[in-house]
Amino acid sequence: MSTACLLPHTGFGPFTASEWQLSPEHSLMLPVQPGDLLQSTQGTVWITVDGDPRDTLLATGDVHTVCENAVLRLSGFDAPRVKVLSRKPVQARVWRDTQGWSHWLPMARAWAHRRLQAGAL
User: Fold this and answer.
1) Burial class (CB in 10 A: 0-12, 13-18, 19+), 118
2) Whole-prediction pTM
3) Domain 2-118 has CATH 2.60.120.10
4) Closest among 33, 29, 25, 18 to 81, alpha carbons compared
5) Smallest Cα–Cα separation from 78: which of 45, 104, 30, 107?
6) Structure confidence at residue 76 (pLDDT)
7) Where are the domains positioned within the chain?
8) 110 in Cβ contact with 62 (< 8 Å)
9) Which of 5, 33, 80, 84 is the most exposed place for a label (fewest CB within 10 A)?
C-alpha cells in the first residue's frame, strides 16, 4: 500500500490517497465516509456492502463516489489495483475469502458456457 497527502484544486480540502493491490483469495474491508472516492487503476474491482443487495463493479479508470458511512468489501479476480481518496487516512483490513472470486470463477465459466451452448448469450 502507498499513501500520499494531496491538496486538490477543487476546494475539497486536503485528502489522503491510498492504493492497494487486490487478490482473488482475500477481500479488503474498507471503512469509508461520504465524499470518499474509489478508482480502479488496474483490473476490475468488485465492491459490496454486507446486507446491501447492490454491488458495484469498477473497470480500469472507473471512479465511485461514496454516499454514506459504510464498510466496503473490495475484491477482484484479475489482480486489480484500487486507489482511495479520503479526507482521513483509511484503515483497511484484509479478510480471507473462502467463497471469493477464486471459487466463483469456475462456476461462472460453466454457467456462461451452458448459456452460450443454449444460444442465450
Assistant:
1) exposed
2) 0.67
3) yes
4) 18
5) 45
6) 87
7) 2-118
8) no
9) 5
Exposed (0-12), middle (13-18) or buried (19+): which is 19, by Cβ within 10 Å? middle
**What residue type is assigned to position 107 of the chain?**
M
Residue 50 Cα distances to 29, 72, 95, 99, angstroms: 11, 8, 13, 14
H helix or E strand, kind and range, residue 107: helix 101-118
Letter string b/e over residues 54-87, b meaning 16 or more CB atoms within 10 A of that residue's CB: eeeebeeeeebebeeebebbbbbbeebbbbbbbe
Q: How far apart are CA 40 and CA 63, in angstroms?
A: 7
Read off the pLDDT of residues 29-47 as tens digits, 9 standing for 90 and up. Answer: 999 999 999 999 999 999 9
Name, in order, each residue with C-beta under 8 angstroms of 1's C-beta and a sequence gap of 6 or more. 18, 19, 20, 92
Element (H, E) at 111: helix 101-118
Does 99 have pLDDT greater than 70?
no
d(CA 36, CA 22): 19
Residue 24 DSSP one-character state? T
